[in-house]
Design a protein that fits this description.
globular, 2 helices, single chain, alpha+beta
């Protein structure tokens, strides 16, 4: 999230991680192929294995399969940044 936010920061509000539905739309509409191992979304949930921490939803296939990874260096995955439309 921090890496995305700092991208294009001088030109506007910066970028962000896509939501699950935004990433799935890009896969379908733009023909994007996911990176091997899946890609992170901005969707986070309370960790079921580490109380007080977060897990992050990631998309594992172009068909929409998902997984959960810890919001730590050990859970690192590829990601892409998106920008909100501007006038």
């Amino acid at each position: 999230a921090i890496t995305c936010e700092s991208t294009d920061r001088n030109a506007g509000p910066g970028r962000r991680l896509p939501s699950h539905d935004e990433l799935m739309t890009a896969i379908g509409d733009a023909g994007i192929t996911l990176t091997a191992g899946g890609e992170l979304t901005r969707n986070v949930y309370p960790s079921g294995s580490d109380p007080g921490q977060l897990d992050v939803l990631f998309v594992t296939s172009n068909a929409g399969s998902v997984g959960i990874t810890p919001n730590t260096a050990a859970g690192a995955k590829a990601f892409r940044c998106v920008a909100d439309p501007r006038n």
